[in-house]
Amino acid sequence: VQLQASGGGLVQAGGSLRLSCAASGSIRSINNMGWYRQAPGKQRELVAQVSGGDITNYADSVKGRFTISRDSAKTTVDLQMNSLKPEDTAVYYCSTTSWSNYRYWGQGTQVTVSS
Questions:
Q1: Mean pLDDT score of the chain
Q2: What 3 state SS string does 20-81 have?
Q3: Phi, psi of 104, deg, nearest 5
Q4: What is the 3-state secondary structure (H, E, C) of 54-68?
Q5: Whose CB has fewer CB within 10 Å in the chain, the N or C terminal residue?
Q6: Beta 109-114 vs 9-12: how paired, if at all?
């Protein structure tokens, strides 16, 4: 599975960005799809995820502000980010897990929120 992320950038606090991730390759093996982020000096953390059964879960820090969505073909996963805060600044990574629990990573995309 190959993952191609896009949509990062620079935005002022309170603004919005939308990240998109397109999957290709062994699409049928995809189970969960989600987004992680890693800020400088911090560990990579889960931001939002949608399971194979379309159950979503979010980090507490983004609940009510971010929305994850996936197309019915399970080839794209988007992250709508609203009311962005400076603490959302990080490199965001698209990720999927296969039904055999193998994890794939896309390249990161930088999100910078200025105060």
A1: 95
A2: EEEEECCHHHEEEEEEEEECCCCCCEEEEEECCCCCEEECCCCCCCEEEEECCCCCEEEEEE
A3: -115, 150
A4: CCEEECCCCCCCEEE
A5: C
A6: parallel
Q: Identify any residues that bridge with 30 across adjacent strands, giving them in sequence order.
A: 98
Q: What is the mean pLDDT of residues 8-14?
A: 97
pLDDT (tens digit per residue) in 12-22: 999 999 999 99
CB hemisphere CA count around 38 (13 angstroms): 11
Q: Per-residue confidence at 44, pLDDT binned at 50, 70, 90?
A: very high
Burial readout 24-52 (b: 16 or more C-beta within 10 A, e: otherwise): eeeeeebebbbbbbeeeeeeeeebbbbee
Reference 94, options 34, 40, 32; nearest CA is 34
